[in-house]
């Protein structure tokens, strides 16, 4: 059965620099139905390049474009995976966050830079691409993450309770949800998250991250 609303694909690369998560969804007025999801890890050389691009260095522009092209090849594989059972013509758009290389919401002027080559990805997949989610929020005085609090408000808010949602990504962020769906959520970054945890885990265990929080779960809660 063909859905009344079109399909969308979301591509997310977090500040932990570990790879790309992808999802195929059917967006409806009262719910978002997840149809498929997949992920691909960044190959070691690409991940090393991305880490090096977090700091100023020679030949940055060319290296960014080359890395973005490599990332697009991974994105293409994910789109092919997600659309194995449907026509790409049914997908209205790909929302691609890109890979954050700089994010300074408290600078003057505030700025943020996400690495992506949206035009190239649109040509590779045959699907329109939507990018640059953060810049307008920064221009409006926010911290550059406008979508997460709005999503949390729509799907987790209570009619009579205040609620709080904490997301521990590469950087951690929080959403404060007032009762009712008509109130605006408040959201902001709270500090480092998985970025420092992954570095610690790599140094002390030789692993890139703590799979399923197994090592952390073996401790005693203080």
Structural class: alpha+beta
Instruction: Please list the strands of the largest sheet in the order they lie side by side.
Output: 3-2-1-4-7
Largest sheet: 5 strands, mixed
- Specify Rg, calculated over alpha carbons: 19 Å
Terminal CA distance: 52 Å
DSSP helical segment count: 7
Q: What is the global morphology?
A: globular
Assembly of the depicted chains: single chain
**Average pLDDT:** 90
Instruction: Tell me the β content.
Output: 25-35%
The parts where pLDDT drops under 50 for at least 5 residues are none
Notes on the structure:
- The protein has 222 residues and is α+β, with helices and mostly antiparallel strands.
- It is 32% helix and 30% strand.
- It has 7 helices and 10 strands.
- The longest helix has 23 residues, at 60-82.
- The chain is globular, with a radius of gyration of 19 Å.
- The relative contact order is 0.12.
- The model has no long low-confidence stretch (mean pLDDT 90).
């Amino acid at each position: 059965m063909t859905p009344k609303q079109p399909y969308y694909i979301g591509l997310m690369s977090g500040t932990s620099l570990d790879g790309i998560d992808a999802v195929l969804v059917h967006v409806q007025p009262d719910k978002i139905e997840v149809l498929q999801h997949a992920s691909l890890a960044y190959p070691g050389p690409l991940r090393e390049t991305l880490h090096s691009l977090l700091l100023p260095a020679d030949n940055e522009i060319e290296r960014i474009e080359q890395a973005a092209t490599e990332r697009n090849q991974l994105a293409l594989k994910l789109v092919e995976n997600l659309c194995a059972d449907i026509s790409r013509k049914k997908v209205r758009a790909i929302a691609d966050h890109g890979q954050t290389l700089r994010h300074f919401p408290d600078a003057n002027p505030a700025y943020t830079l996400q690495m992506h080559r949206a035009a190239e990805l649109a040509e590779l997949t045959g699907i329109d691409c939507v990018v640059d989610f953060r810049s307008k929020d920064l221009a409006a005085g926010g911290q550059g993450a406008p979508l997460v609090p709005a999503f949390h408000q729509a799907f987790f808010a209570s009619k009579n309770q205040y609620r709080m949602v904490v997301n521990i990504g590469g950087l951690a962020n929080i959403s404060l949800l007032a009762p009712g769906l008509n109130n605006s959520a408040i959201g902001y970054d709270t500090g480092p998250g998985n970025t420092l945890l992954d570095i610690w885990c790599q140094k002390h265990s030789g692993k890139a991250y703590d799979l399923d929080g197994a090592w952390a779960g073996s401790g005693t809660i203080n």
